[in-house]
């Protein structure tokens, strides 16, 4: 399996045709066809179904593409790094963050760090990925620092601090409920709810709060990012119960953000790999993210990372409750 074959495969998936892939890579159409055929022969299954000049990935091709895309991105990173070393450039600062934190919090944190002159590498690479991918990037060295929702049960990462802020309701500015200073979960009765689709993270807490309040929804729209939820709300499709970082850090016109009368906490923080000591630039950014979060979120509570184990237990364990998880009497295990 050669890089040229993988590049040809990815180019055909991206462009939808062998001819266009050839133009993209600067190779002839027969050369691209040959590379794809060689790769299929080596793999033992077809990567594409063909209909005239157009091709579509098979189910196996789609599944393989995810891995190939990551591999090619890693190769490009190696090429960029080699070129930077040849120029004498310093090491870039590589950041992985969830879409919410990448859009709503990281820009102001970076601006703050640069303003202080504590974190100003020539190159910064920012990647918005899922919480699981943030952890993977930090563990594998693809990222120097990760901004992630919490809790996470992974050994090998250091949690520098835990931020806690209440979830909010977002609704159209012309919605009658927008005139209220806060939104009750009872106000959501018989309204369509826009919420996150991952049932094991924030969605779990939202569903529990609605169930405890005895509030059935008229319908639910699931999405994988808060910015998607905000655009759905702006289109008049429902009320979104969201983490506060995107709602406050990336406000949209005609969207009202209101506190909720229920305790639905959002937890987030900064992680780095335990195996490598954090650089001065990384530590400066860790503090800048905390300061930016304090400026953005009026109700922010900063928790000690040693409380991470108790947080995991309260949210996913069989015992313990969120209301007393940070009680002085609680035995708090050290974080992983």
TrEMBL record:
PROSITE patterns: HTH_LYSR. Gene3D superfamilies: 3.40.190.290, Winged helix-like DNA-binding domain superfamily/Winged helix DNA-binding domain. GO terms for molecular function: DNA-binding transcription factor activity; sequence-specific DNA binding. SUPFAM superfamilies: Periplasmic binding protein-like II (SSF53850), Winged helix' DNA-binding domain (SSF46785). InterPro entries: LysR_HTH_N (IPR000847), LysR_subst-bd (IPR005119), WH-like_DNA-bd_sf (IPR036388), WH_DNA-bd_sf (IPR036390). Residues 1-58 form the HTH lysR-type domain. GO terms for biological process: positive regulation of gene expression. Keywords: DNA-binding, Transcription, Transcription regulation. Belongs to the LysR transcriptional regulatory family. PANTHER family: TRANSCRIPTIONAL ACTIVATOR PROTEIN LYSR (PTHR30427). This is LysR family transcriptional regulator. It comes from Cupriavidus oxalaticus.
